[in-house]
Design goal:
Blueprint: H1 14-23, H2 28-33, H3 36-39, H4 44-53, H5 57-64, H6 74-107, E1 113-114, H7 117-125, E2 136-139, H8 145-154, E3 158-159, H9 170-173, E4 176-181, E5 186-191, H10 204-209, E6 212-214, E7 221-223, H11 226-239, H12 245-255, H13 261-270, H14 274-288, H15 294-297, H16 303-317, H17 329-342, H18 345-354, H19 360-365, H20 376-395
Parallel strand pairs: 2-5
Antiparallel strand pairs: 1-2, 3-4, 4-5, 6-7
Helix pairs in contact: 1-4, 5-6, 11-12, 11-13, 11-14, 12-14, 14-16
Organism: Paenibacillus eucommiae
Protein name: Renal dipeptidase
InterPro entries: NTP_transf_5
Length: 399
């Protein structure tokens, strides 16, 4: 990383700086010796809150096991140990369910690519206990969605019907459906895209051709090729503002694998993710000490990815959870603007064009029978203006 550019981390609390020092690459003992004077001022409860929020406690606990712990309050180690053990059982639970699902889908001739979960933990960390996972994410061809839903229903999974749609816009505006198993306390996300649209991304057949096999379970599970996985991870992390350091740790670990840059860079260019990848590398390099190769270091020297990296710190130091809706108004505005800034010029043009396509809100504003839904195209500007006017009047107490 160029020495003339450094992220401004002035708003980072000392507890976050200490956490980063623990989980970043390098020697833990030498790190902590340089922070001895600050340890007496650490709010260890806040330190634990950061570890939980950023989902880095498995790696943190493993790191602390390698060093002298006498200067850390015993309750901190105990809390980390308890969380680590619970996560290990959780990941074993996920592994068993993943095996069952992959086997069931395969027997029904549904091809599956596991996106995260135990497969990702095993590939990046070499140990499923060193990464957390809140659900299982499985990518399948879109034409198999109905069959997959029937299979999951037979296993006791309940579909979360949160997606509203008009004129089948769900196929490209959304990218997954969520299913819950209340007895097993498991959540499954069945994907037909890597990311929500509109946007260009590799089709399922391309990803399938480049797939790898994971042997975490007796029944093989298939997952993304290394370059495809890198593309997915940088896109996913950026879309969530890198609000959890776990996602940056994923970048750190995959980047230090044997990536084929001759394949990766054209892939990033094709799908307009060069600057997003550079944003991830700047953050990983400066926050986690990820060593950058000459090929990828060049990407981090541009102004745009540096600005995007600095903007992402807004999410990191505040422990923002973008899934806790409704978001505070200032966070919602910031996130909306940041998502737009992440887009390339071509992506912005496609996104703006997609705004002309009817939304479910148009059908809520003016209900029309299905055979007249095509009228939402010419009516959309008027329906949008009506909703805005009504919202403004309500906010002013006029209705």
């Amino acid at each position: 990383m160029n020495s003339d550019f450094h992220l401004d981390t002035a708003l980072f609390p000392r507890e976050l700086s200490l956490l980063l020092s623990f989980i970043q690459a390098g020697n833990v003992e030498s790190m902590y010796s340089g922070m001895k004077d600050e340890l007496g001022e650490i709010d260890w409860d806040h330190f634990l809150q950061l570890a939980w929020h950023h989902r880095v406690f498995p790696v943190l606990y493993a790191k602390l096991q390698q060093m002298d712990q006498t200067w850390i309050p015993p309750y901190v180690i105990q809390a980390l140990q308890k969380k680590y053990q619970k996560n290990t059982f959780q990941m074993l639970h996920f592994s068993a369910e993943m095996e069952q699902l992959c086997k069931l889908f395969s027997e029904s001739n549904i091809r599956t690519l596991v996106l995260k979960g135990p497969v990702l933990a095993a590939d990046l960390y070499g140990d499923i206990s060193l990464r957390t996972s809140g659900d299982l994410d499985i990518l399948i061809p879109i034409h198999d969605l109905h069959q997959a839903e029937k299979l999951l229903d037979g296993l006791g999974y309940i579909k979360d019907d949160y997606i509203q749609t008009v004129l089948n816009d769900w196929k490209w505006r959304h990218h997954h459906i969520t299913f819950f198993h209340h007895q097993k306390k498991l959540k499954i996300e069945i994907h037909w895209r890597l990311s929500p649209g509109p946007g260009k991304e590799p089709c399922f057949n391309e990803l399938w051709e480049r797939k790898r096999t994971c042997t975490v379970t007796q029944t093989p599970a298939y997952y993304l090729g290394r370059e495809d996985l890198f593309l997915f991870l940088v896109s996913h992390g950026a879309r969530h503002g890198w609000s959890r350091l776990r996602w940056l740790m994923d970048i750190d670990h995959i980047y230090q694998q044997n990536i084929n840059y001759a394949k990766l860079i054209p892939l990033l260019k094709k799908y307009h993710q060069l600057d997003v990848a550079a944003q991830a590398l700047i953050l990983a390099s400066q926050l986690l000490n990820t060593p950058l190769s000459a090929e990828m270091s060049v990407l981090t020297k541009q102004k745009r990815p540096r600005r995007l990296a600095q903007d992402a710190l807004f999410y990191i130091y505040q422990m923002l959870n973008l899934h806790n809706e409704p978001l505070p108004e200032h966070v919602a505005r910031y996130h909306k603007r940041h998502l737009f800034n992440l887009m390339s010029i071509q992506q912005k043009m496609l996104f703006l064009a997609s705004q002309l396509f009817p939304y479910p809100g148009d059908a809520d504003t003016l209900a029309l029978p299905p055979y007249l839904h095509f009228l939402y195209f010419p009516l959309r500007p008027f329906l949008w203006a009506w909703r805005k006017t009504k919202k403004r009047v309500v906010s002013q107490g006029g209705m």
